[in-house]
Amino acid sequence: MALETRCFGPDDGLFNRRQLRHLLTSPHATWLVEGHFEGAACLLIASNGRSRWGRLYSLSVDPQFRQRGIARRLLEAAFAWLREQGVDVCRAEVKIDNLGARRLYAAFGFEEGPELPHYYGLGQTGLKLTLRL
Fold this sequence. Notes:
Order of helices and strands: HHEEEHEHEE
CATH architecture: 3-Layer(aba) Sandwich
Largest sheet: 6 strands, mixed
Structural class: alpha+beta
Number of domains: 1
Oligomer: single chain
Radius of gyration: 14 Å
Mean pLDDT: 92
CATH class: Alpha Beta
Number of strands: 6
């Protein structure tokens, strides 16, 4: 929760304690952690009965540890894990004005899809992202 509140605000998709507890105990979620919680990534495996995909549900790096390659290492480990699970598509969402995150995701090959109006709250637009692994 401490990392979550250092990285996100109410208009950024901040998880509350109940949501985090659920994600930490869900059999469909996997967490990757860097160091002593300098960064964390949460991935979900989802299915619609016909196909399976991964979802990068959260990626956070403590502001004091940014620009040190932590997000890149977490993403590399996340995609390796998804491939090991037999998943070949990863989906994510990003706030449209988070240019740093959008550049990072683009460097990994994520394609930006449609806009998601009010996804992060009233007036807070998101973008759908898709990566073929």
